[in-house]
Amino acid sequence: MSKTVHLDDIPYSPDSCEVFERIMDLPGAVFLDSSFPHSTSGRYDILAAAPSDDRLPILPAGADEQASRAFFRELRNYHREHYHGIQPAAPDIPFCGGILGYLGYESGNGLNKIDPGSRCEGGIPAVGLRAYDWCVTQDHLLQRTVLVTLPGVSPRQRRDLLDRLRRPRPRIDTPFRLTSPFRSNLSEDDYRRRFEKIQAYIHAGDCYQVNLAQRFSAPCTGLPWHAYLELRSLACAPFSAYLALDNGDAVMSLSPERFVSLHGKHVETSPIKGTRPRHRDRRADEMAAEDLRCSEKDRAENLMIVDLLRNDLGRNCEPGSIHVDRLFEVQSFPTVHHLVSTVSGELREGRGAFELLRDSFPGGSITGAPKRRAMEIIAELEPHRRQVYCGAILYVSADGRMDSNIAIRTLLCHEDEIHCWGGGGIVADSEWQREYQETWDKVGLFLNCLESWGKAQ
Asked: What is residue 284's predicted lDDT score, i.e. its pLDDT?
């Protein structure tokens, strides 16, 4: 028996931040942000809060492969049980309630038989998924804003939400600032030694590519939302997100990279591998993009990850259905140019979003190749856990539609500290100075912005 999803139109606002601020005082507030109007490439924004009290399956700390696979199986069973019979709300409604949140990078350790080693410092849980019975979707193409509610939401709850969403934008105080500058967990010399260790593994035939990251941290005070607004205006990206966590913590992602999406039976992933910094001078900027487009090294790195992802998708897609739709496409973002490819396929009968996530996680563009050995080397060489960085922020709608990002350009506010990671892929002909500089090129603008902006408050 099908169940009807209820749609209520409310006044459209070009800036979804204004809409989000009307619900962000509710627990579990989340904002999946296409960065419109700063970026014209995004169409949909998704906003939700007040998740249901239903407890989702939990991934135990240090879960092995069997327990990790069971976790994804239990998530699938939860989704089937709670959303059975839910039909798509409309072709242009991407999320109608369902499961939304993050999978941290380390939640892929068990799936890939990785020993996390001694890196057991505190942090946020490896998985932060919640079940939501309602959401607000903003369609910037149709200029339409809709409150979407699942059948379990009562008429009174719906009226209360509509009243809240039609109120004036509230004033939000407690400005955000750093109390000292960012510091890296790797000195330049530390990075060089780890780079050389990776090169030794590559030349020994252990692996072809390894992504190495450094973490920048600073103490902070105030509401992370203000920091997100500042970063969003500086470096918008189509797969951005703001997730309010418990105790005032927050995840702020300004990711340009899709991990994997599912719409009907169509599966798509768009790995990024290859980066050049942007330049204010137009001619220099065009030359940087052309240098990236023609770089044999970057194209080879990108192709390694495309092949890895074709294999990952092949575990759940129909044989012969996987295609490379776009290869080595240069896409330009406010701070960097990226080399992007797109791989698609058609889902096999009996498979769904959770099988796709399980068999592709974490994304190959942020591990290296082969994936398992690259992850082992990352666990050996990086001094701190990645947490949400290089994991995925995702939704699985009640009607089965799914989308997710690779959580790069992602910051975590936790226990009065803010953390930001920058990384890049290392291959046989990499040069350590250039790779080290690339980690700064990717996030240096974020760090400088928060340091200088905090002083101005």
From this structure: 95
